[in-house]
Amino acid sequence: MNKLGILAIVLAVSFIWMSNGAQKEIASVVYDDINMDLVANGTYSGESELGPVFVQVEVTVQDNMINNIEIIEHRNGLGRKAEPIIEDIIAKNSYEVDAINGATVSSEAIKSAVNKALKEGYQ
Question: How many structural domains is the chain composed of?
Fold first, then answer.
C-alpha cells in the first residue's frame, strides 16, 4: 500500500473516532427546564465545554424575552458556522432549537451555555 492509501485510512479512522466521541459528548449534555416567565430582567453569563469546543455567552433578558445573545468566546475548530443558532434561540425565545447541520457539537455547546445563563436569572 502506498503512502497516500495509508494516509487515507488514518484520516478515515480518525474521523470515525472523533465522530463517536462527539456523539458521546452531545449525549452527556443535561439541560435544565427553563420557564421564561421566571427569568428576571438582566444579563446573565453561561459557559459550556464539549470536547474541544468551549463557549461563553452573555444572554440579555427583558420582559421574559431573550433580547440578545453575545458570544464572548467560542473555541470551536470548524464549528464557527454554528454561531447563527443564536438568531434561532432569540426568535423562539428558547434554547430548544435544532442544531446547525455540520456544526452539531458547537451548536449544542452554545445551547447549553445559553441554558446555563438563563438558569442564573431564575427568580
Answer: 1
| Cβ neighbours of residue 83 closer than 8 Å, sequence gap 6 or more | 71, 74, 106, 110
What pLDDT band is residue 14 in, cutting at 50, 70 and 90? very low
Helices (H), 53-103: 85-92
CATH number, residue 39: 3.90.1010.20
pLDDT digits (tens, 9 = 90+) for 60-75: 999 999 999 999 999 9
**Angle value at C-alpha 120, between 38 and 77, nearest 5 degrees:** 125
Instruction: Judge whether 59 and 68 are in contact, CB under 8 Å.
Output: yes
Tell me the C-alpha distance between 60 and 123, whole Å: 15
